[in-house]
């Protein structure tokens, strides 16, 4: 089992203006963990720390009991894959879908090596599993946001990691593609991957289940099971607006909604 552990993390750009402080969380293979909170509280910054892109100012991060900063990028990439947000920078990628996904084999290649026939075969198989074969020779930049998100997840899977970290994987997607990505995330967790993702939508966390860490606008950070952590009171405090969490009997699951009166 691969375990990523962060202990008492803190990050700031200016010493007197902490983005977050004292954060502790753990992700293991086969688990799902959603980091939730309003915009601007540090969710994406936390992910950058956890994958080694941005070193924290305080605390430590270990991957299988080894300090993250002591592992080479190649060593990290064989255990941990990062899927960034779909945004305007995606249009700068000029590769075909096949070549973009094939980059997932980079951690297993030498400095000047080219992909092997086995690498290419693995790529073909993965695209087929995710129903992306028809897009393999299309430009990645020409795809829709939902298609790009699935292709980025495919690239992460080709790394053969144990843990996958996703930054707001549904933020740029319509409802249909949101459901498709969430189903894929659920399937990956059931297959034994450890999944950590961020979102600003509590309903996504309620759908996925597992563990959740809730940021608040005043620097708080609470971790626990989704069912006990995402209460009406705690969500209302975090988002500074009245939010109600209720159970839908027909589907036997919880949902949340804004409790404010919008009548005019």
UniProtKB/TrEMBL annotation:
Gene3D superfamilies tied to this protein: P-loop containing nucleotide triphosphate hydrolases (3.40.50.300)
Pfam families linked to this entry: ABC_tran (PF00005)
Keyword terms of this UniProt record: ATP-binding, Nucleotide-binding, Transport
Recorded GO MF terms: ATP binding; ATP hydrolysis activity
Recorded superkingdom: Bacteria
Every ABC transporter domain range: 4-248
CDD domains, per the entry: ABC_Iron-Siderophores_B12_Hemin
Family designation: Belongs to the ABC transporter superfamily.
Protein name: Iron(III) ABC transporter ATP-binding component
Organism: Loigolactobacillus bifermentans DSM 20003
